[in-house]
Amino acid sequence: MPGISRNQQREIEQAFELRRQLSSAGLTKRELLKMGLLAGGMAALPMKGAFAKALRPPVLLKGGPSSPPTRAFIEPMPRFIVKQPVASLNPAPTVNPNTGAGEGRKLAHQVLTRFPPQKFYSVSQQQGQVSMSPDLPLQTIWGFDGMLPGPLYIAKYGEPILVRNFNNLPPQNQNGGFGLPSVSTHLHNGHTPSESDGGPCFFFERGQFYDQHYPNVLAGFASTHPPHGDINESLSSLWYHDHRVDFTSQNLYKGLAGMYNLFNQFDNGDETNGAGFRLPSGEFDVNIMLNDKVFDPNTGLLFFDIFNLDGILGDKFLANGKIQPFFQVHPRRYRFRFVDGGPSRFYQMFLTDLNNLSAHNVFWQISSDGNLLPKPIQVESFRMGVAQRADIIIDFSAFAGRSIYFENRLEQQDGRGPTGNVLAAGQGNLIVRFDVVLPPVPDNSANPANIAKFYDLPDTTATPRITRTFRFERTNGQWAINGRFMSCVQDPNRPPGNFVPRFKVQQNSVEHWILQNNSGGWEHPIHIHFEEFQILSINGQPPTNSPLVLTGRSDVVRLEHNTQVELFFRFRDFLGSHPLHCHNVVHEDHAMMLLWEIATQGDNNTQP
Ligand SMILES: [Cu+2]
Question: Which of 279, 300, 334 delimits the end of a domain?
Fold first, then answer.
């Protein structure tokens, strides 16, 4: 390990060992907090001696080098494996939870009969072994079908599906130090009824299954735009991941995530079809999940630091489960669907030519999270917080015969958030190397410069029924919203699966939500489930469209230092509970999240 002394190296190794022993004791973060091991963060602990020193290795906590060295760009980036449907499920799915057969669902499906599934899927959450680098040992992960990343669902509007999700994870005492074999699978911002959304409280246990019904229906179908919904609210690139309350960060880090591409008649997955947008399709439509991870310097095994409440930064950068892969491409246009798979890092991605560092290599951004922008914008970079997606189009014909890198140039030194500095070309994290070495092939996709419009932005002038304010803040070393922490509390007056919400939204109403970060030290990528928002103002000013502040529809807003944003929402079509939370999954688990509920009658709580 270069740049550190033998003593520092030994401290790091001791710290990993101690943390591993404490982690495998199976304590939750809250139990550790009660024991005083987490109070106020490690730095505040009044500990002395070798134990304290080892628990607070300076190099590790500064996010410096910890993992063993790995060679870069010696393995290809894997493509996602497309999930295939099954002919039928046995037993057949039922509206009410089939608890007798082992289903862990508590609430009935709201629209299973209205939108009967046309395809059925069966997926198993289980342990698997994967190679993240030839320079590291095989890693034991938890993945959908045992894979990292999990499979890619190809879905279409108007084609409802049902996914039967099995929990086949190993028992808690075989978790390798982190991970809880109790899961809830969230399809991030599908317009999905609450009981299938995979919320934090809808977890199910080992040996159980859970049927998730994805109607793949446009928002507004039962309200503003009957009967088919608003085409302007079409979604494209979604991802799914574990959302188990208090354990999302461990389970996600362990590998429980995948992607879900949703098509319609315009974004139709066929670049030769002139009725659509003619976006690059087939082998030229590539999903990329980004993660950063830490590996134990002694064993080379994946390491999760349950003592870190700021947010975990890895010193190894993975794309589709491989550390710094290369990807061979043809000299033509490609669509890339990026997701920041966390756990805590923000990215600003540039195309870097290491032989010409001063070049401004432009490409096209076409989406903000799951939403196509009103039209493509030409950019030199794009920024993402955890859970955010960005669809971009790169024309590699300009780079034929050369290699060019995806480089993250956003400086971030700890889990609190980026410093705001954008590093010079070549000084950031090189993540994927594109080798433009494959032969020329036809390109039937549209030149983004000639795409005048994807969709219109829905109107945001309707008067809100209520404006609510949410403060995101640090409280006693943990993370709170309006001074309170997340917990799943069963409503004693309603059937099982109904949790006490912090507030009730009136179905089909308009609300304005003000999100406040009064801190100069932290940034939070805030995600609200179920409906997308538009930003009405940032610090009182209407936003101006730029690559860093896209004014289109989104489902995650990066709440930067000392920032207040006002968001426009319409909550439609379904009833039930959903969370609002920080998607730095360490903050989320600890416990910057709340549950709200769409109900027939809303409340008037302006600071829930
Ligand atoms: Cu946060």
Answer: 279
In angstroms, what CA-CA distances link 147 with 283, 314, 316, 320?
Answer: 20, 20, 19, 10
Distance CA 336, CA 342 (A): 18
Which structural domain range is residue 446 located in? 285-450
Q: How remote is the CA of residue 582 from the centroid of ligand 1, in Å?
A: 5
More confident residue, 29 or 230: 230
Residues above pLDDT 70, as percent of the chain:
89
525 alpha carbon to ligand 1 midpoint, in Å? 6
Q: β-strand 237-242 against 185-187: which pairing, if any? A: antiparallel
Lowest-confidence pick of 61-70, 196-205, 459-468, 473-482: 61-70
Q: DSSP string covering 389-415, please?
A: EEEEEEEGGGGTT-EEEEEE-B---ST
pLDDT range class, residue 545, cuts 50, 70, 90:
confident
Amino acid at 510: V
Residue 528, beta-bridge partner list: 580
- pLDDT value at residue 476: 84
Query: CATH number of the domain that 168 lies in?
Result: 2.60.40.420
Judgement on whether residues 392 and 316 belong to the same structural domain of the protein: yes
**Do 274 and 383 belong together in one domain?**
no
In the beta sheet, which residues pair with residue 143?
126
Question: Has this prediction a pTM greater than 0.85?
Answer: yes
- Expressed in angstroms and rounded, the spacing between residue 486 Cα and the centre of ligand 1 is 13
- Give pLDDT tens digits for 144-169: 999 999 999 999 999 999 999 999 99
For residue 74, the number of C-alpha atoms closer than 13 Å in the C-beta half-sphere is 8
> Is 202 inside a domain boundary?
yes
pLDDT interval class at 62 (50, 70, 90): very low
- 365/255 same-domain check: no
Measured in angstroms, how far is the CA atom of residue 139 from the centroid of ligand 1?
Answer: 28
User: What's the confidence (pLDDT) of residue 35?
Assistant: 54
**Distance from Cα 583 to the centre of ligand 1, integer Å:** 6
The residues facing 595 across adjacent strands are 579
Give the distance (Å) from ligand 1 centre to CA of residue 539. 19
Distance (Å, whole) CA 577 – CA 107:
11
Q: Which of 226, 257, 279 is the last residue of a domain?
A: 279
552: its two tokens: 């289109």
pLDDT tens by residue, 33-59: 555 554 333 433 334 444 444 444 333
Residues 305 and 18: beta-carbon distance below 8 Å: no
Q: Radius of gyration over alpha carbons of the chain, in Å?
A: 23
